[in-house]
Design a protein that fits this description.
The chain is mainly beta. The longest helix is centred in the first third of the chain and has 26 residues, at about 1-25.
């Protein structure tokens, strides 16, 4: 009961106090702004206001509204009316600031304030106070009569910003002209001595800044500014961190454009790395790289913030990761190649070890002749090995190795490369050999030909070829003939044509298996009729009748161009015993060239016998020359044409026959001739279809008459080039 009485008494006292305070506030004078002080920062174009409230009651906090007016040049030119709401305490100094678009040096500013209480508890105080007195702000000293200035000075902005520039001048100056980067620019006249210029979306031009100046004519009094326009600071891109040794984290990023400006207006942007879990931060020395030391406690999770800053802006990016998921291993080292033999080699290497609990996956590539021919993946803790087999002898190889974390792949290490060369081995295949035999002054001349072994079969550089001749009549007579490895033929002069010849290729490691041929006195001398063949779309089709299967081990087709005064580039093809045709094609075949083909059967004794002759043109052309014709036995009624020296060989095609052309003033064709047009003239033409007929008698002529003739040869493509007609005059009758 006593407690209830005490509580009621306290509430009555509190109510009485509030009632008293309300009555006191109601009796107070309006709360008026007082002690208004104004300062400014020309660089930032800021006005700073501070004031107190007059007649403010003690022990109260009141919500208040302040109305602020700012005028420019003259009091009546109000440019800003702004409301400022705040809670005010007794004796509190109130602060407010304003940023001017126009540089403060350009014009005088005036400021005044009034206030009212905005507190529902005291509705009677919610009326505006009187205005404070106008306060004048001058950021620029009074101008001398001949003064000319441009503001703002030392202005730094980002490209794309809007900037207001002004020029002010003294009473003696009148004709003011202003230029932006050398181009005349027009502005807005604020009064007779102030002009402003609104630059919108200013571009970056150069690190030295953008030039703006004004000049008075005719005095040439000039003043100007350099407007420092910075590139916009970009957010770092591709921010990433990784470790190679679990001692250091390497963080990298793409910084974007450098915002450095000249005249010390702005250095290049700086980068700071902040790790939130540890609370540590580091100022980065490079613009795209920062190394972070990993603590011995081996913190596993990192939360980095990369901060980019310049004088105008700050940007940041974040990265959260587990350290074990960002391992970029160092390149393998101690790479060694051990040559086992000509076809095998063993590769060994080491990686940076972190104990048995950490495994790397290493990728091994074997490169030969410029391309990767084998790949293997090897799991490695400390060291790895890989054996290469089935290598080519005397071949250069290159091994590439790189490794990555096997548990959480992040990146491959850099490649480590190692070259090696396998040693030579004896050639693995006998040379492919062919021969041509001829008798000369009682001796047997054998021309041996062979095809160079492929790199795979040569197994090293061929130093020389050996031809071992063994007489079939005297087996004990064995001779070794040798020639350089650069040659692919050899000529042997033997006392007789009955020999077995073995040809081997030799390098520094040994000799190849032998290729064996046997020659006899009648080898290749068989009488065989030559046949003409035509080239098909695929090449020359050559066919033959088979020899009995138990007497032949294969066939050889040889071919060569038929050229005057030129040695033959002999080519041949070995064909199995069960094949009786082949198509010969070659990139060296040329139009207008005749090629001769020979087909040989190879007996079980390795003796070659001629089975067939073929000849043909890769592409027939018209004859390259016309016959040189002699005229004989001229009578009053006839004369004989003769071209027996004209060769049908070594032409651009097979000669099919001849055309005899005849012209005379009678314009009547002799028997056997037919009318034709030759080079636009009407002539008589006789067709000789036998290419071996090289004489022709022109008959049924008139005495004492002039005749013109021309003889041309032709192939199935056409006749040769047009020649010149020659004249024959028949004599009078005897």
């Amino acid at each position: 009961m006593a407690f209830a009485v005490l509580q009621a008494t306290f509430l009555l006292a509190l109510l009485s106090l509030r009632t008293y305070q309300g009555e006191v506030l109601a009796e107070l004078s309006p709360l008026t702004p007082a002690s208004l002080k104004i300062s400014f920062n020309s660089q930032l174009q800021h006005l700073y206001l501070q004031w107190t409230v007059q007649n403010f009651p003690d022990h109260q906090e009141l919500k208040m509204i302040f109305l602020i007016e700012i005028s420019r040049i003259k009091i009546s030119n109000v440019i800003l009316v702004e409301t400022y709401r705040t809670t005010v305490k007794p004796n509190q100094v109130i602060h407010w600031s304003w940023k001017s678009k126009l540089p403060l040096e350009c014009a005088t500013h005036f400021v005044r304030i009034k206030s009212m209480v905005d507190d529902a508890r005291f509705p009677k105080l919610s009326s505006w106070s009187e205005w404070s007195s106008w306060e004048e702000v001058q950021a620029q000293r009074p101008l001398k009569p001949n003064a000319l200035f441009v503001f703002p000075k030392d202005k730094l902005v980002e490209e794309g910003a809007n900037v207001t520039i002004c020029s002010i001048w003294g009473s003696n100056l009148k004709d003011i002209f202003c230029y932006l980067e050398g181009e005349l620019i027009h502005g807005e006249q604020l009064d007779s001595h102030i002009r402003t210029f609104e630059l919108s979306n200013v571009p970056f031009i150069r690190t030295a800044g953008t030039n703006f100046f004004c000049t008075e004519k005719p005095t040439n009094i000039t003043n100007g500014i350099v407007l420092s326009v910075s590139h916009v600071l970009e957010e770092p891109k591709d921010f990433s961190c990784e470790t190679q040794d679990f001692k250091t984290l390497s963080c990298t990023w793409i910084p974007g454009v450098d915002t450095h400006l000249d005249w010390s207006m702005q250095p290049s942007q700086t980068y700071t790395l902040v790790e939130s879990f540890s609370g540590e931060r580091k100022q980065c020395e490079h613009k795209n790289l920062c190394n972070w030391k990993i603590t011995q406690e081996l913190q596993e999770t990192y939360n980095f913030t990369l901060i980019a800053e310049n004088n105008l802006r700050r940007r940041s990016v974040n990265l959260l990761f587990n350290l074990t998921h960002r391992v970029h291993p160092l390149a393998p080292y101690n790479v060694n190649i051990k040559i086992i033999d000509a076809t095998r080699a063993e590769l060994t290497w080491n990686v940076l070890a972190r104990g048995n609990y950490y495994t790397l996956l290493c990728q091994v590539e074997l490169e030969g002749e410029g391309k990767v021919i084998r790949q293997a993946n090897v799991s490695v803790k400390v060291s790895g090995e890989e054996v290469f087999s089935e290598l080519e002898p005397d071949t250069e190889y290159q091994v590439h190795i790189r490794c990555a974390d096997a548990g959480h792949f992040w990146k491959w290490s850099a490649w480590t490369d190692q070259k090696f060369r396998t040693p030579q081995a004896a050639p693995s295949k006998a040379p492919v050999v062919w021969s041509k035999v001829r008798n000369e002054n009682g001796s047997c001349v054998v021309n041996l030909f062979w095809k160079p072994l492929s790199k795979h079969h040569a197994s090293g550089k061929i130093l020389h070829y050996n031809a071992i001749t063994e007489s079939l009549d005297k087996p004990s007579r064995v001779t070794v003939h040798s020639t350089s490895g650069l040659h692919n033929s050899m000529e042997l002069r033997l006392d007789q044509c009955a020999y077995q010849i073995k040809v081997t290729a030799n390098n520094s490691a040994g000799q190849s298996p032998a290729s064996v041929i046997v020659i006899s006195g009648d080898s290749g001398q068989e009488e065989v009729e030559e046949e003409i063949i035509r080239r098909t779309e695929d090449g020359f089709f050559v066919s033959w009748k088979p020899l009995p299967g138990d007497k032949v081990i294969g066939y050889v087709v040889e071919w060569c161009a038929r050229l005057q005064d030129q040695s033959c580039d002999m080519q041949w093809r070995n064909i199995g015993p069960n094949t009786t045709s082949t198509v010969i094609s070659s990139d060296v075949f040329r139009p207008g060239i005749q090629y001769d083909f020979r087909v040989y059967g190879i007996s079980t004794e390795r003796v070659a016998s001629l089975m067939g002759k073929r000849t043909g043109y890769y592409q027939e052309l018209v004859p390259s020359t016309n016959p040189q014709v002699a005229v004989n036995n001229v009578t009053s009624h006839s004369f004989i044409l003769n071209w027996t020296d004209y060769s049908t060989l070594n032409q651009s095609g097979f000669i099919q026959g001849y055309h005899v052309y005849l012209k005379s003033k009678h314009r009547q064709c002799q028997p056997g001739f037919e009318k034709a047009i030759f080079s636009g003239d009407s002539v008589c033409k006789y067709d000789i279809k036998n290419p071996e007929q090289k004489t022709f008698t022109v008959e049924h002529l008139q005495p004492e008459s002039s005749y013109e003739f021309l003889v041309t040869s032709y192939t199935h493509v056409g006749e040769g080039l047009n020649g010149t007609f020659r004249t024959v005059i028949t004599p009078d009758k005897l």
